[in-house]
Amino acid sequence: MKKRVVVALGHRALGTTLPEQMVAVNKTAKSIADLIEEGYQVAITHSNAPQVGMIHTAMNEFGKTHDNYTSAPMSVCSAMSQGYIGYDLQNGIREELLNRGIYRTVSTVLTQVIVDPYDEAFYTPTKVLGRYMTAEEAEEERRKGNYVVEEPGKGFRRVVAAPNPVQIVELDAVKALLDADQLVIACGGGGIPVLEQDNHLKGASAVIEKDLAAGKLAEGIDADKLIILTSVEQVCINLGHPDEEKLGEITVEQAKKYMEEGHFGIYNMLPKFRAAVEFIEQRDGRSALITSFDKVKDGIKGRAGTIIE
Ligand SMILES: Nc1ncnc2c1ncn2[C@@H]1O[C@H](COP(=O)(O)OP(=O)(O)O)[C@@H](O)[C@H]1O
Ligand SMILES: NC(=O)OP(=O)(O)O
């Protein structure tokens, strides 16, 4: 049986504008194609903060000045970001595989992820999105009940909750595609956050941390490996200090110790470690790799990146 892997793509895989994304996904596609050539079944998830911010701004600013346009809630903007990013990724990967003589369907599953309405994150939003606003615009957002943070010298930005992923609604569809040996892009941008209300799923004004959704997806499809592709080749302890040290192969116990000691950024590296540790601890034989896009091939052979086993 083929080994299964979930690959979480960070900002660098996608760029921040439409033209940047077109270029970035072609590079990313090479790393994914390498994994297919190594014999893995691959499910991909990805970042979306710049894209969902751009979509949210576009959808909600236009409506202010034009009649007959209604604003789009964050959950709808998340769905749009999954579609737009998935579209570029699907085609980039399909083309790279065809260039290597491999035909494989690549599909994007619009994925909803159930979150807990009482998640602490709803009381302390942390995910910063969208364009910089003036003080007056920020005040208007606050009046509407939205959270805003000031970035000194730059302006104000919208900030939304980042609740934990609880359950992936379309998990069976993802599994069915993987069982058919196809590539799947799922839980993009952490998934569309939804609240369960009897049979109804109500979109939540939130953005789920994509690394945590990747871990949830990896658990759900019973993956063997979780690969998190980011902007650094290796994770460091004592980052920025004279005794900075790059991490190669470490155990889960070491990873937990470093997490407790506070070596990792709360909103960037820590969620990657949380996802990796939770995933590995669920069953024997699993591992996680955190590295940069160009090091995947070496990383899966244990020759690059930070590997948690
Ligand atoms: N201990 C650490 N070692 C390496 N990078 C770290 C560490 N703590 C925080 N970081 C930061 O995490 C960033 C990668 O996370 P993030 O910005 O969320 O990217 P991505 O979009 O790829 O998930 C790095 O660019 C680095 O600045
Ligand atoms: N959804 C999410 O975590 O996006 P970013 O990685 O872009 O912050």
Could you please describe the fold and organization of this structure?
- This protein is α/β, with parallel strands linked by helices.
- The protein has two domains: 1-30 and 40-126 and 161-223, Acetylglutamate kinase-like (Carbamate kinase); 225-309, Carbamate kinase (3-Layer(aba) Sandwich), CATH 3.40.1160.
- 39% of the residues lie in helices and 23% in strands.
- The protein is built from nine helices and 17 strands.
- It has helices at 18-37, 49-65, 74-99, 135-143, 171-179, 210-220, 252-261, 269-282, 296-300, and strands spanning 4-9, 41-46, 106-108, 112-114, 127-133, 147-151, 155-160, 167-168, 183-185, 192-197, 200-203, 225-230, 236-237, 245-246, 249-250, 287-292, 306-308.
- An eight-stranded mixed beta sheet has the order 3-9-2-1-12-16-17-15, sandwiched between helices. A four-stranded mixed beta sheet has the order 8-4-10-11. A three-stranded antiparallel beta sheet has the order 5-7-6.
- Strand 6 and strand 7 (155-160) form a beta hairpin.
- The longest helix has 26 residues, at 74-99.
- The chain is globular.
- The model has no long low-confidence stretch (mean pLDDT 95).
- Bound molecules: adenosine-5'-diphosphate (ADP) and phosphoric acid mono(formamide)ester.
- Residues 11, 47-49, 189-190, 207, 209-210 line the site of phosphoric acid mono(formamide)ester.
